[in-house]
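Notes from the 1:1 (GR / supervisor)

We went over the backlog. Supervisor wanted to see one worked example end to end before approving the batch request, so GR pasted a single chain during the call. The sequence is below; no edits were made to it. Supervisor asked that the structure be written out right there so they could see what the output format looks like.
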Amino acid sequence: MNSSRGGLALAFAAQLLVSGVAAQQIQVSRCETKDGTVTYSNRECPAGSSPVRKVNTAPPVAVSDQKAARDRAKKDAAEVKQSDKELKQQAAEEKRAADKREKAEIRVADRCERARRDLARAIQARNALDTKAATVEQMQKATQEVSKRDAELPNSCPK
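Structure output shown during the call:
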């Protein structure tokens, strides 16, 4: 019930405001006859005269209101400029972060590729020892190298 009373009061206040503004801005026309007689009217021009122009009846804007409007405009312009500056800074930071992520991803991909090549070389070296006469120590060393490279691969190539 209170909200409908508040809404009614708000509507009434808005109606008063609109009617007050309308009362201040009465439309007045300057009327002239052929012999140059000038009359002003808020209705149609009298017979024998024609409307020349509309007359501005709005009250003049006070100097303090003009100054306040200029100050608000300057403040708003400064806020827009600051907001633009912040947006540019944020965009630059986001670009730097994206570039940094991309470089990190490239480094990880390079490290992974290197680890895979090292593992493939170690396997190839061990297989080469299988085809020719090799000592047990050489075979053990080659197997250890393959195991070491195989263990390094998950660290170098995260999923």
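Supervisor's comment: The chain has a mean pLDDT of 82.
Batch request approved.
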